[in-house]
Write a structure and sequence with these properties.
The complex is a heterodimer of chains A (445) and B (308). Chain A is of the alpha/beta class and 445 residues long. Chain A has 19 helices and 15 strands. The longest helix of chain A is centred in the first third of the chain and has 17 residues. Chain B has a domain of 170 residues: Orthogonal Bundle (MetI-like fold). Classes of the chains: A alpha/beta (445), B mainly alpha (308).
Chain lengths: 445, 308
């Protein structure tokens, strides 16, 4: 019996399965190709600025940096952009390092330094940095990136914290520059005058995280207190209680919001410039934020207020270049970090100055940066930071994640939980002591 | 006389039934492989990793049950467990009641109800991140639309996401809003399986709407109820919607008041690099959920009716 469709039965089930298996095999070839070419691949530099970042000047700085290196070196470098929130709070870095596929070059903050150092992935950069250049970095800037006198990260910036205020909000409340508070009590009183139905008087960061801890530390230090001393917890102290209570009072008097807009208290555009608050605790990077996003908004800055009898100090953070000691070519990666930011030649110094003045707004980490920058650090808001705010600065502490979490929980419990600051400080101190008793890593600073 | 060549030997062929089986298994194979590779093996590895101290940079050190001992002594773990329990205790009944209520409202099939069903399901079609961000804007202190409404009725100064007393319940409300349409659809399927004759007979016997609901609808929804309570409990304890909404809206704050266990697991693994400890917590959660499923299944006979 003949079949009118002889030779054209259509796809069979076996045929579909076979085609699927073939497709899966072919699609696996790119992975195989990647493996084959890994040896000659450029070094990967992960950061959250370029080439996909939103600030053109920062994108340009990084792309030019890498272009200059690639033009003069055989080993090539390739930028890989990781969005800011993913870089800091996401899974990409953690999973790639855990699987041995971490980037060759990356940027780290002081708060996270110990986790990477204790994990053994930071390459010693000291051999690539001339001793004269090492001396160009103030001790307090480099201390949190050094272990046993060896440098493991090179700072690209220094970010002091201050208070930004809205000139319009001050005018509306009948206030002026003479009303800028010097003490915590004056600050809270001023906050009440600036608070109304649609606006908070002041803003501190309220979301838990490394950044909140970073912004709280200077208030702790201003009381003369600290979180550790001689390897033991010093957190249970009157100064700690005072600092926790200050932030608690700001919330409970209603002058500071529990929730923030946009990216949080490090986002001036979303909060201060939108009129959500009249004063905002933010860092020097706010200058470039406002320049880019709210150039017509009139604002001023003043140094952090101090407690009665306290001593002024602010905190200086900032990101740093680091090389992965388990990457494809740690020596070249280390050489790149030193060439980029810590070389003897003028180009390296100028590059650093361009980053902190044109691409962003920060303080230069090198002393020579102030000399090369000259008037740039004498004028405008950047001049205020250089001459009034950053005059007494302490580096962001570096600590293991466990200690960070204990302090973070303490800040949250006092600020938003309304718990008794003394109880919170005592409990946190016991936990810090319990951890320090068994800690065997690099020194906590 | 030439010998007749013997006919070529036929290869033994599978019977039609065996070929059908083979085809079926081969079609299921890709999905099964995917479940095994991306779910089964990682789950098994998680139990193994929980026995190691993992430094997050490829370093593994066998420490036996030390992670579990650390977990039992960790006050934040117990706090997260308590928060998770509260979240589940609020979420499961609320989603059940809301889903069933909506399903009863739009049970009749007509053009109007078709549109309303779509509207109720619409939140579930939106990305969880978008849901969380939009609600965050709506409840922002002072200027959010919900905050302004609360001020207008004399409740100014209430911070729905910034106050530990309210934050968890706010997250529950957002979760219910997201899930209600999905559970409404499942209940609609269950309601449509109930024979109409039962209701007609009950009306003839003089049963009012409440009696019909209590003695006909609710009992005959047993299989659907079993499924929804089980799925919503798992979702509340370890679901993506719990993680996404809380992570975007509060990051576990304020003061750990919304730090459910999966948020804490995420912090430990990806914030601190303590993959071993995170795996210990996660595997404990899995064991708890499995135990709950077994007990719930036994208590309710898997949602089957008594006569089955």
């Amino acid at each position: 019996m003949s079949n009118g469709f002889k030779g054209s039965r259509g796809p069979t089930r076996r045929g579909i399965i076979a085609a699927g298996a073939a497709a899966a095999t072919v699609s696996g070839f790119p992975y195989i190709n990647r493996m084959a070419h890994a040896q000659g691949a450029p070094l990967k530099f992960w950061q959250f600025y370029a080439p996909g970042g939103s600030v053109e000047s920062q994108v340009n700085w990084f792309t030019q940096l890498v272009a200059d290196w690639n033009a003069s070196h055989e080993k090539q470098i390739e930028l890989e952009y990781v969005p800011n929130t993913e870089y800091m709070n996401g899974t990409k870095l953690a999973t790639s390092f855990a699987s041995g596929e971490g980037p060759d070059i990356f940027i780290i903050s002081p708060g996270d330094f110990l986790r990477y150092y204790n994990g053994g992935v930071l390459q010693d950069l000291t051999p690539h940095i001339d001793p004269a250049v090492q001396a160009d970095y103030p001790a307090e800037v480099m201390a949190s990136r050094k272990v046993d006198d060896k440098i493991y990260a090179i700072p690209m910036e220094v970010d002091p914290m201050a208070m930004y205020y809205s000139v319009k909000a001050f005018d509306d409340a009948g206030l002026n520059e003479n009303d800028i508070p010097k003490t915590w009590d004056e600050f809270l009183e001023l906050g009440k005058k600036l608070t109304n139905g649609d606006r908070f008087g002041a803003m501190f960061h309220t979301a838990p995280g490394y950044y909140q801890n970073f912004t709280w530390y200077p208030f702790l230090w201003q009381t003369g207190a600290d979180f550790q001393k001689d390897g033991k917890s010093a957190f249970d102290s009157p100064g700690t209680v005072q600092a926790l209570k200050f932030w608690q009072d700001a919330i409970e008097t209603g002058i500071a919001p529990r929730q923030m807009l946009g990216g949080g208290a490090n986002d001036l555009t979303a909060n201060l410039a939108s009129g959500y608050c009249a004063i905002q605790n933010c860092g020097v990077w706010g200058i470039s934020q406002m320049r880019a996003n709210a150039p017509d908004f009139e604002y001023g800055v003043f140094r952090l207020p101090v407690p009665e009898g306290g001593k002024y100090v602010t905190v200086g953070g900032g990101w740093a270049f680091a090389a992965n000691s388990r990457g494809k070519d740690p020596e070249t990666a280390a050489e790149f970090c030193a060439w980029a930011l810590a070389a003897k030649d003028e180009a390296s110094v100028q590059r650093g100055v361009d980053w902190v003045t044109k691409a962003k707004s920060n303080m230069p980490p090198r002393t020579s940066g102030f000399e090369v920058g000259g008037d740039l650090f004498q004028q405008g808001t950047l001049g205020t930071f250089a001459n009034e705010i950053a005059t007494s600065m302490r580096a962001e502490p570096r600590m293991p994640p466990q200690v960070y979490k204990i302090i973070s929980d303490a800040i949250q419990a006092a600020q938003l939980g309304g718990q008794n600051p003394q109880d919170v400080a005592s409990s946190a101190s016991k936990q810090i002591d319990a951890f320090l008793a068994s800690y065997r890593g690099a020194p906590i600073l | 006389m030439a010998a007749t060549p013997s006919p070529p030997r036929k290869r033994p062929r599978l019977s039609a039934k065996h070929r059908e089986w083979l085809s079926g298994y081969l079609f299921v194979l890709p999905d099964a492989l995917g479940l095994l590779i991306f779910l089964g093996i990682p789950m098994a590895m998680s139990f193994v990793i929980a026995l190691f101290r993992v430094d997050g940079f490829g370093g593994y050190q066998f420490i036996g049950l030390a992670n579990y001992r650390q977990m039992l002594a960790d006050p934040v773990f117990w706090q997260s467990t308590w928060v998770t329990l509260k979240y589940a205790v609020f979420l499961v009944p609320l989603t059940y009641v809301t889903g069933l209520g909506l399903a009863l409202l739009v049970q009749r099939t007509n053009r109007y109800n078709s549109v309303v069903r779509l509207m109720y399901f619409a939140p579930h079609m939106v990305s969880l991140v978008v849901v969380a961000l939009v609600w965050q804007f709506m409840v922002i202190d002072k200027i959010g639309i919900v905050s302004r409404f609360l001020s207008a009725i004399g409740l100014s100064g209430v911070s729905l996401l910034g106050n530990p007393d309210f934050a968890l319940f706010t997250v529950v409300i957002v979760s219910v809003w997201f899930l209600m349409g999905y559970y409404m659809l499942i209940f609609l399927g269950g309601l449509q399986d109930i024979p109409k004759e039962y209701y007609e007979a009950a009306r003839v016997d003089g049963a009012g709407p409440i009696a019909r609901f209590w003695f006909i609808t609710l009992p005959l929804l047993k299989p659907t109820s079993f499924f929804i309570i089980l799925v919503s409990t798992v979702a509340a304890t370890a679901g993506a919607q719990a993680f996404d909404i809380i992570y975007v809206m509060t990051q576990g704050g304020p003061s750990n008041s919304t730090s459910v266990l999966i948020i804490y697991v995420y912090q430990q693994a990806f914030g601190f690099g303590a993959f071993g400890y995170a795996a210990a917590i996660a595997s404990t959660l899995v064991v708890f959920l499995m135990a709950f499923t077994v007990v719930f299944y036994a208590m309710t006979r898997g949602g089957r009716f008594t006569y089955e």
